[in-house]
Amino acid sequence: MSKDFLISKWSKDHLEEQGLSNLTHEELSKHRLGLRFAYILCGSLVAIGLTMKSQPLLLIANGVALLGMLPPYHPFDYLFNYGIRFLVGRPKLPPRANQGRFACAMATVMLLAINYFLYQGYITAYYITGIALLASAIQVGFFDFCVPSKIYNVLLKQRSKQVTAGDSTPAMKG
């Protein structure tokens, strides 16, 4: 596409929270569709699995989330990079940051719980956990707002502050 529109400051800020702070505003704008692709596809797979109460579909979604924890790309990023992007005229996606892999780790745990709840017949817990996971996928897939990235960043900053505080204390002489 010859005419790209720039993403909003909201989206730019939230994409940077997802570990994409090394990309310019223009680059983020060009990658926007691709960055959302995996979340929308995963969310759709989960939505269909939840609606149909399909353990096989939910287990496939669980496997995709598990593979999404591995660097450098989410499984659906490969689909985008080696197929879809040529159809829509977009550049190759950058590797996923730690925040994205952490989001996949959280989704993996939630999908394990969802599968367990379905297997055990705990339907209320199944739907509550499923809706929470879908809400997260919708937030990041359509609004670039990623709760797991926020959690990751808070945890990392806390750890960084603790290490810095520990390093700044004077060494004991012996």
3D architecture notes:
The protein is mostly helical. It has one domain (9-17, 24-159). The protein has 7 helices and no strands. The chain has helices at residues 9-17, 25-52, 55-68, 75-88, 98-120, 123-143, 147-167. Helix 5 crosses helix 7.
State the gist of this model.
This protein is mainly alpha-helical and 174 residues long. Helices cover 75% and strands 0% of the residues.
Which key features would you list for this structure?
174 residues, disordered C terminus, 7 helices, mainly alpha
Give the averaged pLDDT, no decimals.
90
Biggest sheet record: none
Estimate what percentage of residues fall within beta strands.
under 5%
User: Helicity range of the residues?
Assistant: over 70%
Alpha carbon gyration radius = 19 Å
Q: What ranges have pLDDT less than 50 throughout 5 or more consecutive residues?
A: 168-174
